[in-house]
Every structure is written in structure tokens, then in C-alpha cells.
Amino acid sequence: MNDELKIKFWGVRGSYPAPGAGTVKYGGNTSCVEINAGGHTIILDAGTGIIPLGHELAKRAIQEKRGLELLLLFSHLHHDHTQGFPFFTPAYFPNTRLHVFGPGGTPETLKQVLERNQSSETFPLSLRDMPAAKTIESVRESQVIVWDEEKVWVGESASSASPDAVVIRIHKSYAHPGGVYVYRITWRGKSVVYATDTEGYVGMDRKLVAFARNADVLIHDAQYNEEHYRGQLAGFPSTQGYGHSTVTMAAEVAAAAETGELILFHHDPAYTDDLVAAQEAAAQKLFPDSRAAHEGLEIKLRLDFRSLLKSVAKTKPDFGSLRDGSKI
Ligand SMILES: [Zn+2]
Ligand SMILES: [Zn+2]
Prior knowledge:
Largest sheet: 8 strands, mixed
Helix content: 10-25%
Shape: globular
Order of helices and strands: EEEHEEHEEEEEEHEHHEHEEHH
Distance between the termini: 19 Å
Bound molecules: zinc ion
Structural class: alpha/beta
CATH class: Alpha Beta
CATH superfamily: Ribonuclease Z/Hydroxyacylglutathione hydrolase-like
CATH topology: Metallo-beta-lactamase, Chain A
Radius of gyration: 19 Å
Strand content: 25-35%
Oligomer: single chain
Number of strands: 15
């Protein structure tokens, strides 16, 4: 058992991929983040960033001579979050086990959308041509996803999970057209909140603030600068109501939720490196512990004494009150 929760960014762009000389510093791939917790690999979204991640995972599997077990979470099913999936190499390995979760009106919705994305008219290979063992399931906001030792399960409560389990909670936000899932991934007392494709409200998104409270890392949509959002940037229409945030909105949530580091995410594809760097500088004035995500950025959260103690306390039934109060 290692003692770090690792986050790695593989795609940080919103809307559509943006390759070219102007985006080499932050990268042009669409949304994909890898989280490693307790030896488990969790992937957030399958924008084009999942393609290089897939190659890396395939390499790891070959080197370590073992099959991969992966958990993939979709925030929503807009194409910048799904377009890399047909090119995800590990899905073509029969010895890969892939657990896929995301939103949808029925348990089947997510599967149907992914099947449509790979219909014969739009892509040469169907979902069935990807021989990995896959479970694809729509989940509800009230449910928790738990990865406990070798088992992945979905339930209404994580109370039976062991102290080493990865626990994933869901907040359904309506601050994006069609809705979006915000995820909170917790392992041994450390938490990461992934809040992409979300637009701030006047007076803040209070539900998001409550959901993200005291997270160690908040990954938050910050697609636009203020001028762009208001329609004051030459050549760009106002983007109010598009379902994406400004730096100010992201920083307000981080400050109110008293999170650790704020990572600006889902950069506008029209923004060059200079513009994204300006977003980062603007965020740091409002919330000093801020950074703009770039491809290859790695964040390692070391378990501290307190969170380890909390985990130990959870294993002892006579510390029941501590268990109930612990944040998972
Ligand atoms: Zn998006
Ligand atoms: Zn979207």
C-alpha cells in the first residue's frame, strides 16, 4: 500500500482539441484526468487526453505483465468528454477490466450513448469490438461508488467500506446545459473534487461549495476571462449561460469551500498559452493557492498523520463516534 494520492492531467482543454504552436505549454487535448489512490487507477472523462493515457497504461501493463483494472467516470456525455474513448487502447485488451460510470436517466443511458458514439455510420469499431471486460452503468446522485480492495460496487452508503477503500461521491449540478456530475474522490481522508463544465451563480454555487468543503484539491472549470464572459472581448460573443466559469467564479468556490489547491481546468480552445497564463495570474490574486492545469501536471497528496489516524480509528469498532465524524 503506497501512501500517496496522485493526480495527473492528460487533457485540460474544453470544447474541442486545440493543437498548434500557441498551446504547447498547457496542451491541446480535451478533458482527461488520472487519479491513483491505493494502487487503483481512476480516470475522469474521456476527452482526447485519454488517448496518450491509454498508451501509457498499456505500456505499464506490458512491463508489469498483468491485466489492467480501471474505473472511468464521465462527468457528462458532451463530445469533448467522450471523443477519446474509441481510441482508448486498454479497452482493446481482453484482459482489461473496465468499470464505467456516468450520468443518465436510466441505468442503460450511458451505455446507449457510448454505443451511438461508435455506431457503424460514425466509427469503424463498435463497443462490442472492444474486447475488455466492461461494465457500463448510469449512476444516481444519491449513490456512492466504492473501490474496496479487488471489488468495485455501487450503493447508497459507504458505511461498510474498509478504511483503504476509494469512495466516490456525486453531486448533480444543473449549472451546465443538460446537467453535469461533479465527483468527490476520497481515499484515506484525502479528497479531490472534479468540477468541470460548471458555471458560477451570482452569490456563488452554494451546493457546490458544500460538496467541495475542505477538499485537498479542487479542479474547477475556468474556461473564460471576465471580458470574454461578458461579451467585451473583440471577436467573441458573450458566453453567459454556456455552462462554464470565469476565474473569479472558480476562485470564489475555492475560497468559500476552504479547499486546498485550486486547479483551473477546461481552458477555452481559442486561448493561447499567454491567455491561460493570464488566467492563472488572475486566479492567484483571488485565491493564492491556484494553478492552471497543463498536460503532464502531477499533484501528489501525501497522507498526513491525521488522516492516517482517522483511517486506523475506522478499523476499531469502539471508536464508532470518530468513524461517523470522519470525512469520506
Ligand atoms: Zn466540456
Ligand atoms: Zn459540456
